[in-house]
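Loading example: each entry is read as two labelled lines plus one structure line.
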Amino acid sequence: MFRTKDLILMEVIDIEGNKIGYIKDLIIDFYKKEIKGVVIFSYKLFKGNLKVLKEDIISFNIGMVIRKTTEDNSLQFKDIKNMDTINTQGEIIGIIEDILFDEFTFNIKSILVSSGLIKNFLNGKMVLLIDNVILGEENLLYYGENSKVNLVSVPHKLFTEVECHEKEY
Amino acid sequence: MKKNIRLIIIVLLAVAVIYLLTRNSVIKELIYLILVSFIIAYCLKPAYIMLIEKGFNKKLSAAFLIFIFFIIICLCFVIIIPYIFKEGSSFKNAIKGIQALVDKVNYNAALLKDNKSMQGIVSSIYEKVNAVLIGILNNVINALINIGEDLLSFAVIPIVAYYFLVDGDKINNKMLMLFPVKLRLVVKKISNDIDKILGRYIVSQFILCLLIGVMTFAILLLLHVDFPIILALLNACFNIIPYFGPVFGAIPAILIALMKSQTTAIYTVIALYIIQQIEGDVIAPKITGESVNIHPLAVILLLIIGGKIGGLLGMVLAVPIAVIIKLIYEDLNYYFF
């Protein structure tokens, strides 16, 4: 499962091996529930921001190889970051902090919502499944509060980074 | 429970030992030496990596870079100080010119207002400015004398910086062994992120300062203002400080242009302002990128704090240190959850 931080600041080159820039942001398609592409900050002087659709991404690991860039003006992650999240009663339950998506298909699985520093430590950050949220103009609506299963991401040991099912007694 | 108590005792002992060590003056000098060499090596690293990618020998390119760096510093001293002495007479004239200006202002103002009170205010302002200038000059000379005293350390810094450049990776790996095994991956990732962003920031600041220096030099030459080299250098150096720097750098240039004539001064002000605008709006966003996004208000607060703690050097170091702390916080926030 990837987060935005795993992609941002990644170096990007094209198939001929020329350095293009580094990833600055992600393009999101909430309707299809997928990451549509990435936004690249170009090293060339006057190019500005380049956008790459996910079909043109050939592969990525420590760096990313792309086929071509396109023009695209869809929603970017920076537009929804720190947006308020409200529940069906209208109360604010937190702010959007990150997106969790599958690393191969780029489908969005869930949204990470943080509810304040202290509450994060006590209850963990909330993980809202993408099927239970609706993105609006100013807020994100979460209507899955009455479900029997709530997902959270609690502070786990700093040292085990990837899988943390283990507990220590 | 027993394990926790043991851990706490060990940590407390370690902190106490480190604190006592840093009180020792020998260790303090050593740390200062290492820090300065590390900063020099870190600033030269992008150029070093570029040279290596072009295929030059590692040791040769490192030695070459350090050599060039210190030649430039020595050149600065060797050229600038005799230049100042040579232009000493015109320097004296410059100061006399400023004095004449102040007297003229004083005289004009005296015509308008009550003679005595205006004179009193102006003379006290003059004394204050004098005292500040003398203070700054004293600090600079004291710093130079201190550096001269530690001639031994001055000779050691290039060598240590050279080894930091060449064996930087090995030193990094050894340092990583200070941390417990499970923490190492996270520390490595955090330091990689810091390295990416800080490296970009430092390189972009250098390029910007160079550009400003060159442009200032061209403008001052065009307007026939005296001492274009020193003024351009001053402006370039002061430009490292984000918002106050260009103002500090412009003031000497404007003062010296004022002595030529008022119109030159006005042209200088306008030209410097245009340079700042071009650099700030067009070039800087492109070169610094948007990787370092600290709010301008926070930057100003940090500059004030840095100035209070460390003076001019504090202001220069305030923003990079803030960048490091912000990155560490964000990474911990990420890895914790």
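The first strand of chain A starts at residue 11 and ends at 14.
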